[in-house]
Design brief:
alpha/beta; Spore Coat Polysaccharide Biosynthesis Protein SpsA, Chain A; about 325 residues; globular
């Protein structure tokens, strides 16, 4: 079998109810020059067995890999998938989502025609708990009251000027989840872009670095994914505010160190600070929603305890100290 044009990477953990549907959606693709890498994160249910049932139908195009130990999130499995992939391009699908039959063919045609490093779809479909599929805009519509006039009607190559990209980014105009995108594999490898080793929020880190480093970043009006919304998520099991603070701090420190190596941010320190503030606000707004019933004194204790973490560098301590006295977190 020759090298595939596209590698479809699916991180999997305890998805026995959904993985069959996800794989069948890939199998139904009109574009056939692909491989699928399912990377199991040490599932404790029958997810692997369910995926293995479909091996004969993929004619050697389906590989089932596994992590050495459970990582607690999809980032590490995706990294395993990238390293073991052979496609010219890679795309990610969550283990409970779907691909539309036209998605892979459209990704490949767009990537080849525009020689794009990243293809960024701006729309998706939502599959809700009632089994109904609704049309939705991505983060532009969800998180902004502004009109949708910034969506593209035809493929649009983003400016190479980072100030223009980041003006839009800081207004929430770039969807930061990795699904619904297609990446040139060599672009990821050459720039050493991978998902950080954290339990969640790895997607914001990864997609931000892609936006910074991609010479050709293409936004398109196509719809590629159907995203399933479920009330309970395996990725959030064992979640706590303390774990969240550890993750947020690690992500912010990683992003800050990354920006320190980018000439643009050296010339424009205001943008560097604005990006960090953007990440901080996004993460802590999530915490306000998840822990709105946690008494302020309990939140404060967790913050203060984390400040004693010997592994925390000064930048991390500054972040926690700033938010320790933020009334949005400690007073509700």
């Amino acid at each position: 079998m020759s090298e595939p044009k596209i590698s479809v990477i699916i991180p999997m953990y305890n998805a026995e109810k959904f993985i069959r549907q996800t794989l069948i959606s890939v199998l139904a693709s009109k574009f056939k020059d692909y491989e699928v890498l399912v990377v199991d994160d040490c599932s404790t249910d029958s997810s692997v067995a369910e995926a293995e049932k479909l091996l004969p139908h993929f004619d050697g195009r389906l590989k089932i890999l596994s992590t050495e130990k459970n990582s607690g999130g999809p980032g590490i499995p995706r990294n395993v998938g990238i390293k073991n992939s052979a496609g010219k391009y890679v795309t990610f699908v969550d283990n409970d989502d779907f691909l539309l039959p036209t998605a892979l063919g459209e990704f490949f045609e767009l990537a080849e025609n525009f020689q794009a490093d990243v293809i960024h779809t701006e729309k998706c479909l939502i599959f809700n708990d009632r089994g109904k599929v609704d049309f939705t805009w991505d983060e532009v519509g969800v998180q902004s009251d502004e009109p949708h006039d910034e969506f593209v009607d035809v493929p649009f190559m983003e400016s190479k000027k980072l100030d223009e990209r980041f003006r839009r980014y800081l207004r929430g105009k770039f969807f930061w989840l990795p699904w619904g995108k297609c990446f040139r594999r060599d672009f990821l490898l050459e720039n050493k872009i991978e998902f950080p080793q954290v339990r969640f929020s790895e997607d914001m880190d990864f997609c931000f670095k892609c936006l910074c480093l991609a010479k050709k970043y293409l936004r398109v009006p196509n719809i590629a994914n159907v995203h399933r919304v479920i009330q309970s998520s395996a990725s959030m099991k064992g979640y706590s505010l303390k774990i969240s603070l550890e993750v947020i701090t690690k992500i912010l420190v990683d992003i800050d160190e990354f920006m320190s190596g980018i000439k643009f941010f050296k010339r424009e320190p205001n943008y560097r600070q604005a990006v960090l503030k953007f990440f901080e606000d996004k993460h802590f707004s999530f915490e306000e929603n998840r822990f709105r019933n946690v008494p302020p004194y309990e939140v404060e204790k967790i913050f203060r305890d984390e400040l004693q973490n010997a592994a925390l560098n000064q930048h991390g301590k500054n972040i926690l100290t700033a938010y320790l006295y933020d009334k949005r977190i400690l007073t509700r």
